[in-house]
Design brief:
Pfam families: Iso_dh. Keywords: Magnesium, Metal-binding, NAD, Oxidoreductase, Transit peptide. Belongs to the isocitrate and isopropylmalate dehydrogenases family. This is Isocitrate dehydrogenase. The structure is a single chain. By secondary structure, the protein is of the alpha/beta class. It has two domains: 187 residues, Isopropylmalate Dehydrogenase (3-Layer(aba) Sandwich); 131 residues, 3-Layer(aba) Sandwich (Isopropylmalate Dehydrogenase), CATH 3.40.718.10. The chain is built from eleven helices and twelve strands. The strands form two sheets. A ten-stranded mixed β-sheet has the order 2-1-3-12-11-4-5-10-8-9, sandwiched between helices. It has a two-stranded antiparallel ribbon with strand order 6-7. A hairpin with a 2-residue loop joins strand 6 and strand 7. The two termini are 22 Å apart. The protein binds nicotinamide-adenine-dinucleotide. Nicotinamide-adenine-dinucleotide binds next to loops.
């Protein structure tokens, strides 16, 4: 039976990388019934919302969703479609495996870590107001429920994937109450997983240690804002935003998307790198139980990038998105 998958092209390079990704995923031979969904700035300009109810309903009906990046205005306009999506569907866990890829030249060759980011609260609660002109307040919400849930997700992920260590990243030396609560929840959950080592590190030191020696980390669990920043730092360790996948997972629904944004500087030029979306699709195929297709997809990506002949410009090559897709399809044949 075909898997029902919603695909959301999104804005900027979104439609280009989505078209490329679907062509490669289909070439694995997996049976997927694709249904288009809309979200982002382009649909907002047409219908007045960046996340139509029909899209949400469609995602709920689907077995999984593959999403391209969507544009969010800075300092004005509607709330981010991503934040709205995560909140509406309670996609509480953001999963970002960060693994070195053969052929993608970076300072490190042995990065293999997972960033688990809490997705629903913290400073992303969207609670901001003007106290008096010239003074604004932005409220950070941390709850026992969400912190315990994300800690459990991180430890369960570690157990399922045979990982050895979970590190909670925090700033509890300054935010004693909020980050203190987050840490307390992580400690409590850690007691149920005696086979997994549990450590803690302050977020600024974590950034320093990550760029010095990323191999000392395994699974990182973070609140929303630290997770957002640290996951991009980690992307930089393995070759940048064009090669890192992501998944937003809830109890019921799961949305798979790349870490990168809409890349307005290269949109429409036909040179965007679809690898991140394809690696997100690898996570999606695993989620759908299509282990063989997932493995073949990763194998094809590693082969093509490892050979280093067909690389998009962000990885130092001159290949177009189409040329890269053809190389991947040939590697899958
Ligand atoms: P960005 O990720 O769009 O771009 C940063 C740099 O990385 C640019 O130089 C860009 O060309 C490059 N890049 C990103 N993805 C690439 C790819 N697949 N192939 C090749 N190069 C790539 O980040 P930004 O400029 O800060 O954000 C632009 C817009 O994207 C904003 O509107 C922001 O809100 C949105 N955004 C969306 C998401 C999402 O939907 N998940 C995530 C981050 C940013």
């Amino acid at each position: 039976m075909a898997h029902k998958v919603t695909y959301i092209p999104g804005d900027g390079i979104g439609p280009e990388v989505m078209e490329a990704a679907i062509a490669v995923i289909d070439a694995t031979g997996v049976s997927i019934e694709w249904e288009k969904g809309e979200a982002g700035a382009e649909v907002e300009a047409r219908v007045g919302t960046n996340l139509p109810t029909s899209t949400l309903e469609q995602i709920i009906r689907s077995h999984a969703t593959l999403k391209g990046p969507t544009e969010t205005g800075v300092g004005k306009g509607a709330k981010s479609a991503n934040v709205a999506l995560r909140k509406s569907l309670d996609l509480y866990a953001n999963l970002r495996p960060v693994k070195s890829i053969p052929g993608v030249k970076t300072r490190y060759e042995d990065v293999d870590l997972v960033v688990v980011r809490e997705n629903t609260e913290d400073l992303y609660s969207g609670l901001e107001h003007i106290v008096v002109p010239g003074v604004v307040e932005s409220i950070k919400i941390i709850t026992e429920k969400a912190s315990t849930r994300i800690a459990r997700f991180a430890f369960e992920h570690a157990r399922k994937h045979g990982r050895k260590k979970v590190t909670a990243v925090h700033k509890a030396n300054i935010m004693k109450l909020s980050d203190g609560l987050f840490l307390e929840c992580c400690r409590n959950v850690s007691r149920a997983y005696p086979e997994i080592e549990y450590t803690e590190i302050i977020v600024d030191n974590c950034c320093l240690q990550l760029v010095r020696d990323p191999s000392r980390f395994d699974v990182l669990v973070l609140e929303n804002l630290y997770g957002d920043i640290v996951s991009d730092l980690c992307a930089g360790l393995v070759g940048g935003l064009g090669v890192v996948p992501g998944a937003n997972i809830g109890e019921v629904n799961a949305v798979f998307e790349a870490v990168h944004g809409t890349a307005p500087d290269i949109a429409g030029k036909g040179i965007a790198n679809p690898t991140a979306l394809l690696l997100s699709a690898e996570l999606m195929l695993q989620h759908l139980g299509e282990m063989d297709a997932a493995k073949r997809l990763r194998g094809a990506i590693e082969r093509v990038l490892g050979e280093g002949r067909v690389l998009n410009p962000d990885l130092g090559g001159t290949a177009t998105t189409k040329e890269y897709v053809e190389a991947l399809k040939a590697a899958l044949a």
